[in-house]
Amino acid sequence: MKTTKTAKTKSAKNQKDYTLSKPTIIVIFGATGDLCIRKLIPSFFNLYKKGMLPQNFRIVAFSRRPMTDEQYHDFIKEEQQKRKLTVLEGPEFKKFLKHVSYQEGLFDEPESYKNLKKKLIGMDTKEFKRCSNKLFYLAVPPDLYQTILKNLSYHGLTIACSDGEGWTRILIEKPFGRDDETAKKLDQMLSKLFREEQIFRIDHYLAKETLQNILMFRFSNMLFEPTWNKNFIEKIEIKIYEKIDVQGRGAFYDNIGALRDVGQNHILRMLALIAMENPHSLDSNAVRSERYKVMKSIQPIEGKDVDKYTIRGQYKDYRKEKSVDSNSQTETYFKIKAFINNARWKGVPFYLESGKAMKESKAEILVHLKESNAYLCPNEGGCDFKNVIAFKIQPEEGISIRFWAKKPGLVSTLEPRELSFLYNDAATNHKTVDAYERVLFDCIKGDQTFFTSTDEVLASWKFVTPIIESWKKSKLHFYDKGTFGPTTKL
Ligand code: BG6
Predict the structure, then answer these.
(1) Is 324 helix (H, G, I), strand (E, B) or coil?
(2) Residue 37 CA from chain centroid, whole number
(3) Which of the listed residues 122, 178, 301, 375 has the most CB atoms within 10 Å of its CB?
(4) pLDDT at 143
């Protein structure tokens, strides 16, 4: 049966109304941390302004230091000032803060969870007069996940009131483990305590507008899909360059490195979206399952191949950063030439690259098409007329296509031109939504499409772990800050 436009609009509206009609409590563990101040509070506030939070919602900020609700509200302002962020204020923010309360507690102290439970039950019985939805956001270092999750479960905080009412969900940040073994352990622990539909593993890249659009762009335009394969595509580059260095995050970063920090997650999610098969629906299981199939099909790089297909680098003076080992072997840059073992992509190289302290900040996917063998080549000195499709993620979000056109005039020469658009566009009044707004909204809605599944996480580690292992014995290439990384080529 064909769904009419009106029916679709109605069902989207009904879904929004349904999602927002239920009372919902969001508990943030790590409420005094950077993520909460920088991203979560502003994103919740934006959703509130847009009317995209449940009518009855409460945010419970859980953290160690003793504070009253008012003191926590002041703390948010002070921290925003300290970090030179936009300071949220005004009557609307004050109204929003009425929904935000503070709960002092220690992550490993059972008493703290009893107090939290008391508070949540109090809200349900006194304020909402019904059982509310509960969302637990773990904005804490991963070594605290187990302690918090076990305590939540032990104190019965993760049990829904009934099948139809009061769901409970958890939101967790990357990294999910540090190799395939630790990821498996974390996964086993999670699956003992929660069902997969309760677990929302964040990869904020999946929530970025340009990345979401890859599927729409590829599968809704007849122009692209027929050429999206080894017969037409020469190579694909996926990169995240950052001008910033480790910016005082040395203690965290030195223990992680670039491949674990952005490779195992953001870059591989980009790879999955650009290479996956058509899921034929936007149902989260269909999309996640196709993304997973790509992860499974990446050709492993092991043993001697690691030096042939990968480069790891470190910017000079990295070892002088605060809290970084003076003999650190940690990579701040990597480049990998990967292949996908399936009929669509056999033989097409995917260059995966990322670095800190680079010449520019840029995140993008470049799809290079092969040369046309039937072109007219009026230019002297040969032609290499190739089309390049760029999915731009940073600094601006948009898509551009380089194509070849006749240069106006009496002489027949060709020149490269660009067809492009940006998401933030004054002419159309389009504005992108911050990835964290999307993450929070989708989790409340219960849509897992743009969250990583357990299968995806484990398959990504399976690819990355042997590379990290072999790197212990391979050469580290040093590069100057403000360049495009080591000069070595793959
Ligand atoms: C994070 C990494 O996941 O992604 C950071 O831990 C990195 O090191 C950041 O800077 C990049 O994200 P974005 O959205 O700024 O491109």
Answers:
(1) coil
(2) 18
(3) 301
(4) 86
For 95, the token pair is 């109204």
Over the chain (490 residues), what is each successive 10-residue block's mean pLDDT?
Answer: 44 58 94 94 96 95 96 97 92 97 97 96 93 95 91 90 83 91 92 92 93 93 94 98 92 94 97 97 95 98 96 97 96 98 98 98 97 66 80 94 88 86 82 91 95 96 97 95 95
- In 168-316, DSSP assigns E strands to 168-172, 199-201, 233-241, 310-315
- Spacing of C-alpha 152 from chain mean position: 25
d(Cα 235, Cα 366) in Å, to the nearest integer?
Answer: 8
Is 266 assigned a catalytic role? yes
Using CA atoms, how far apart are residues 314 and 330, in angstroms rounded to an integer? 7
User: Which tokens go with 369?
Assistant: 């098409």
If you measure from the C-alpha of residue 410 to the centroid of ligand 1, how many angstroms do you get, rounded to a whole number?
50
User: Tell me, what's the pLDDT at 6?
Assistant: 45
Give CA–CA dist 237/165, Å, rounded.
46
* Ligand 1 center–CA 262 separation, angstroms: 7
* 252: Cβ contacts below 8 Å, ≥ 6 apart: none
Q: What is the pLDDT of residue 413?
A: 78
Q: Cα 179 to the chain's mean position, in Å? A: 19
In this structure, the residues whose C-beta lies within 6 A of any atom of ligand 1 are: 242, 261-262, 363, 394
Compute the distance between CA of residue 142 and CA of residue 248 in angstroms, rounded to an integer.
19
Residue with tokens 């072999």: 470
Query: Which residues, other chains included, contact 125 with Cβ-Cβ below 8 Å and sequence gap of 6+?
Result: none
Whether the CB-CB separation of 40 and 139 falls below 8 Å is answered with: yes
Give me the pLDDT at residue 376, please. Answer: 67
Which atom of ligand 1 is closest in space to residue 204's alpha carbon?
Answer: 14
- CA dist 191 and 289 (Å) reads 18
User: Is 360 in contact with 386 (CB distance < 8 Å)?
Assistant: no
